[in-house]
Specification:
Blueprint (H helix, E strand, L loop, with lengths): L2 H7 L5 E2 L2 H10 L3 E6 L8 H15 L3 E6 L21 H19 L6 E4 L1 H4 L4 H8 L5 H6 L1 H4 L8 H4 L1 H16 L1 E7 L3 H15 L6 E5 L12 E2 L2 E2 L9 H9 L3 H11 L4 H13 L5 H15 L1 H16 L7 H7 L5 E5 L3 E2 H8 L6 H9 L3 E3 L2 E2 L6 E2 L9 E6 L3 E8 L1
Parallel strand pairs: 2-3, 2-5, 3-4, 5-6, 9-15
Antiparallel strand pairs: 1-6, 7-8, 10-13, 11-12, 11-14, 14-15
């Protein structure tokens, strides 16, 4: 199966500029292709990840992927998908963001020389205003630019000249890579179609109508209920483990709806048709086992964070389900209990009843605290405590950083210890 046929099977192609020509090209040679990302933030989220999964598939099929970090374009802002002007970042912030994104890309694509990261600041910053207007601006028809969806959608509220010229700058990117690196294919989201075709038009004007340059976009990924994919209750699901912990990342995929899981397996994993068909059967015959969701979570978490992160996420998941939290590390506690009710108290030893009421406010009264203890409803760091005279020692577990209280079967509280 060719790479294009595989992408079709995965439902990962929205539009192609020349389907037959691209199919012939990828069968004939190792093709240079690229995806761009502007450093508007210091981390990608999983919505950003989709075109890079396509780029990774091309890499594994023996093609030559390029990643363009938009050090120049990111400093002015892409109008795509925005109803108002972007707030311009300082160049220091842009440089910080591009350094962070570069590290994420190196992790995802490896450092074995089979891909290349470039920064469009390296060539766009060298073009003078007069050269920009004479060599490129003259080749772009304003009427055509106004008809591009990314611009047309902004005409009612207005668009600055800065953002209006974005498509020219992105076109120069494609032209530069075509000319200097033999890059013939640009991949992007569905909203990038206008920018991609503008780049191909520029190449044809400068290199001739028979120049082999192609564009491919991916569909907007929607969930079964029609909502946009990629966010959890807490907002974006980030690739940066400091923003979204590996455990939270793993849990996001575990919680995938049965109706969405096969689609996401096709998009976000490198499992083959037979493996995914098996999981599709599992969803249909015994969905309660959630085999497809578990495999999805394992595959994507390993791709983004590595195997150790999968093991850690599974360890936390098992501990929370069973209530056996004593074996968790302080780091795992930080991840697993991040969104649970928490309070900060002193490190002093204290009578447990008083501590539950006065310090942590977990119990509403001493009477209720004694009753819950007597009934075996309180666990401290995974151990059931029934003695109303017992003391709590905040320094006894988890490096003295936390005490985990479970009240009843499912209610957990994270008590942080101040030192």
């Amino acid at each position: 199966m060719s790479i294009i046929d595989e992408l079709k099977w995965r439902g990962a192609i929205n539009q192609q500029t020349d389907e037959a020509g691209l199919a012939e090209l990828v069968n004939d040679k190792a093709v240079g292709l690229y995806v761009g990302i502007d450093p508007t933030g210091d981390s990608m989220h999983i919505g950003h990840l989709i075109p890079f999964m396509i780029l990774k598939r091309f890499q594994l099929a023996g093609h030559r992927p390029y990643i363009v970090i938009g050090g120049a374009t990111g400093s002015i802002g892409d109008p795509s998908g925005k109803k108002s002007e972007r707030v311009l970042q300082t160049m220091d912030q842009v440089r910080h963001n591009q350094d962070c994104l570069t590290k994420q890309m190196e992790h995802l694509f490896g450092q074995d020389g089979t891909f290349k990261i470039v920064n469009n600041y390296d060539w766009l910053s060298k073009i003078s205003l007069l050269d920009f207007l004479r060599d490129y601006g003259k080749l772009f028809n304003v009427n055509n630019m106004l008809n591009k969806e990314v611009v047309a959608s902004r005409l009612e509220v207005g668009i600055s000249y800065t953002e209006f010229t974005y498509q020219i700058l992105q076109s120069i990117d494609f032209m530069h890579l075509f000319d200097k690196e033999d890059v013939q294919l640009q991949i992007g989201g569905a909203d990038q179609w206008g920018n991609i075709t503008a780049g191909i038009d520029l190449i044809h004007k400068l290199k001739g109508g028979d120049a082999k340059a192609y564009g491919l976009t991916i569909p907007l990924l929607l969930k079964e209920d029609g909502t946009k994919f990629g966010k959890s209750e807490g907002g974006n699901v980030w690739l940066d483990p400091e923003k979204t912990s590996p455990y939270e990342f793993y849990q996001f995929w575990i919680n995938t709806n049965d109706k969405d899981v096969i689609k996401l397996l096709k998009y976000f994993t490198f499992l083959d048709q037979d493996q995914i068909k098996e999981l599709e059967t599992a969803v249909a015959t015994h969905p309660e086992k959630r085999e497809a969701q578990i495999r999805l979570a394992e595959e994507v978490t390993e791709f983004v964070h590595g195997h150790d992160a999968v093991v850690e996420a599974q360890h936390i998941t098992k501990a929370l389900f069973s209530g056996d939290v004593a074996d968790l590390t302080a780091s795992e506690i930080e991840q697993g209990f991040k969104k649970m009710p928490s309070v900060t108290v002193s490190a002093d030893k204290k009578n447990l009843v008083e501590w539950l009421v006065d310090d942590t406010k977990i119990e509403s009264s001493r009477r209720q605290a004694r009753e819950d203890l007597t009934n075996g409803a309180i666990r401290i760091n995974g151990e059931k405590v029934t003695d109303t005279q017992a003391e709590v020692d905040p320094n006894s577990a988890f490096d003295g950083k936390f005490v985990i209280v479970r009240r009843g079967k499912k209610r957990y509280f994270l008590v942080r210890i101040a030192h």
